[in-house]
Amino acid sequence: QVDVTAMAQLFGYVDMTDSGFIAAILSIAFNPFFWNVVARWEHKTRALSRVCGSPHTACYCLGTVILMLNCVRSHCFTEAMKSQPKLEGLDSHWAYCSGLVILAVGTLFVISSFLALGFTGTFLGDYFGILMEAKVTSFPFSVLDNPMYWGSTAVYLGWSLM
């Protein structure tokens, strides 16, 4: 048998009927689904490259859409965090500072990943036929596999703690 009391307690702190919470969940789930479907469609058909006139222009257009969707996701996440109940133990200077440190480390990984990969390397350029000359092994890739994903996760975790 599974003891679900801890999970039930945790869900007591989450208002799943809140429209902001639902919007955040939907935007978090939609974004990677959208960009993966569009990138795979582009890889199979080259339709975006034809419409935009070149693979680079198409990649920059998709990257811009992804950035805008990420802004919407961040806004939805922030609004959901504001409207959700707070754990009393996290309403402290220690939790805020911990969140700030986690946020800073996550931001370091995200920004350094972007700088190492460039725009087209970050925003699915390989699906457009834009390949890098060699695998990136410098920081932060020398420290973590998938530093952009881990960094983004750390950003949202730090933000949540704050």
TrEMBL record:
Which top EC class is given?
transferase
Q: Which InterPro entries does this UniProt record tie to the protein?
A: PEMT/MFAP, Phopholipid_MeTrfase
A Gene Ontology biological process in which this protein takes part is: phosphatidylcholine biosynthetic process
Pathway info: Lipid metabolism; Phospholipid metabolism; phosphatidylcholine biosynthesis
Subcellular location(s) of the protein:
Endoplasmic reticulum membrane
> One GO molecular function term?
phosphatidyl-N-methylethanolamine N-methyltransferase activity
E.C. no: 2.1.1.17, 2.1.1.71
The record's section on Pfam families has: PEMT
Mitochondrion as a keyword of this entry, yes or no, is yes
Keyword line:
Endoplasmic reticulum, Lipid biosynthesis, Lipid metabolism, Membrane, Methyltransferase, Mitochondrion, Phospholipid biosynthesis, Phospholipid metabolism, S-adenosyl-L-methionine, Transferase, Transmembrane, Transmembrane helix
Q: How does it sit in the membrane?
A: Multi-pass membrane protein
Q: Which residues cross the membrane?
A: 20-39, 94-119
**What's the chief localization of this chain?**
endoplasmic reticulum
Report which reactions are catalysed by this protein.
Answer: 1,2-di-(9Z,12Z,15Z-octadecatrienoyl)-sn-glycero-3-phospho-N,N-dimethylethanolamine + S-adenosyl-L-methionine = 1,2-di-(9Z,12Z,15Z-octadecatrienoyl)-sn-glycero-3-phosphocholine + S-adenosyl-L-homocysteine + H(+); 1,2-di-(9Z,12Z-octadecadienoyl)-sn-glycero-3-phospho-N-methylethanolamine + S-adenosyl-L-methionine = 1,2-di-(9Z,12Z-octadecadienoyl)-sn-glycero-3-phospho-N,N-dimethylethanolamine + S-adenosyl-L-homocysteine + H(+); 1,2-di-(9Z-octadecenoyl)-sn-glycero-3-phospho-N,N-dimethylethanolamine + S-adenosyl-L-methionine = 1,2-di-(9Z-octadecenoyl)-sn-glycero-3-phosphocholine + S-adenosyl-L-homocysteine + H(+); 1-hexadecanoyl-2-(4Z,7Z,10Z,13Z,16Z,19Z-docosahexaenoyl)-sn-glycero-3-phosphoethanolamine + S-adenosyl-L-methionine = 1-hexadecanoyl-2-(4Z,7Z,10Z,13Z,16Z,19Z-docosahexaenoyl)-sn-glycero-3-phospho-N-methylethanolamine + S-adenosyl-L-homocysteine + H(+)
Question: Which GO cellular component does the record give, naming just one?
Answer: endoplasmic reticulum membrane
Q: Which PANTHER family match?
A: PHOSPHATIDYLETHANOLAMINE N-METHYLTRANSFERASE
The entry's protein name is Phosphatidylethanolamine N-methyltransferase
Q: Which gene encodes it?
A: Pemt
